[in-house]
Amino acid sequence: MKKLEYELCQRGLLLFVFGLALGFFISAFPVRPMARAAHEAALQSGTFLIAIGWAWPKLNWSARKSTILARLSWISFYCLTLGLTCAALFPQGAAAAGASRGIGPVVANVLNIGSSVLMLVVSVLVLFAFRGVPLSDAIKEQ
User: Fold this and answer.
1) pTM
2) Whose CA, among 32, 63, 83, 142, lies 20 to 30 Å from 134?
3) CB neighbour list of residue 137: distance below 8 Å, 6 or more residues apart
4) Is-contact 42 15, C-beta < 8 A?
């Protein structure tokens, strides 16, 4: 396994473990549905990063393009988890009755929107990269 694939798998495992730990504290968050969403997103995103780390060598991209897209990929998943966690910590709208309207909800929205757009772009690029990989090569053992 090369350094980049190892990095994707390692970041995925770290995010997965964070999601597991977050599950223990869901009831401590002011907005429990958002805490549950952060927990589930971390578990699913971590699993995806591990899977894409194993499949990354099949993309045959240049070293620079591969490095940029791999890092943008794990960064976008981390930002999404962080944004959902902030949303669980800082109620907004009707849920914020009596709570101070600070910068927390704004940070959560910026992180969630930004990471979602970035995640979509990177995922579409990865999808198009797999377009040229024959199925037999994609599932063949190395």
Assistant:
1) 0.82
2) 63
3) 58
4) yes
39-48 residue pLDDT tens = 999 999 999 9
CA–CA dist 110, 97 (Å, integer):
22
Query: Are residues 25 and 72 in contact, defined by beta-carbon separation less than 8 angstroms?
Result: no
Crossing angle (nearest 10°) for helices 3-24 and 63-89:
10
Instruction: Provide the residue range defining the domain that includes 73.
Output: 3-139
C-alpha 90/C-alpha 34 separation (Å) is 10
Give the pLDDT of residue 125. Answer: 86
Number of domains present in the structure of the chain: 1
Q: Which 8-state DSSP code applies to residue 56?
A: G
- Identify the three-state secondary structure at position 97: coil
pLDDT tens column, 92-115: 764 555 555 678 888 888 999 999
